[in-house]
Here is the input.
Amino acid sequence: MNRRRSLLIAVVAAVTAAMLVYGLYVLQVNQVEMQQTVPVVVPKDFIRAGVLIREDMVELRPVQKGSYTSGMLTSLDEIIGQETLIPLGTKEPILKWKVNRYHMLPNERQATFQMPKEYLLSVSNGIRAGDRVRVYVSGTEDGSSRRLFDEKEITVASVKSSANVEVDNPKNPNLLSKVEGDKEKMYASRLEANGAIDQINLNLTENEWLEIDRLCSSKKAKLVIAFSSSSILTGE
Here is the structure.
């Protein structure tokens, strides 16, 4: 009887030891697999070009280290608020060159419109390409003035001088300072420019442009385009 009990105990101990060894093996394998992968940002679903990326559109997905390249994004913070330059495939790692944070291109609902000179009353001298501006209308039929587009700020696609050259500080370009995240240089670049603003192009939806055209085509109402400090303070 004692012999059978000893044999049973030995068998139970052997099975327990085997399970423990197997559990440690599985844990080690999982750790090795985790060490051999890199989390990268991928779209949850297909994203079209010209779309502003929100947090609910993307997620992190592990890829093998052998498939990882330095151009892949590894943090959700790097992608939120950026705009797609080309379509992004479902679950495909997002490469840095496929997105842009500065929104100089119109999105999927917009087009770039050059504001006719006869529609303009004034344009702030400090405006540069990539800035956000506020658009006001002055001299409407009822004699009132107001801000257009429900407090929305509009993105400037470009500002040109009379020589058809982008208005900027050649020694300290605003966009270069923006890419570097240097707000002091962004501010300083506006103090000197290679010309006065003669043409301004805005990224607008069709309805926004039609509203401007409706108000200004009578030549009574005119636009006031004002620089918004959010262009520098938020780095957008």
In short: Helices lie at 2-35, 174-180, 183-189, 206-216, 230-233. The two ends are 83 Å apart (CA to CA). The chain has a mean pLDDT of 84. The CA atoms of residues 141 and 218 lie 9 Å apart.
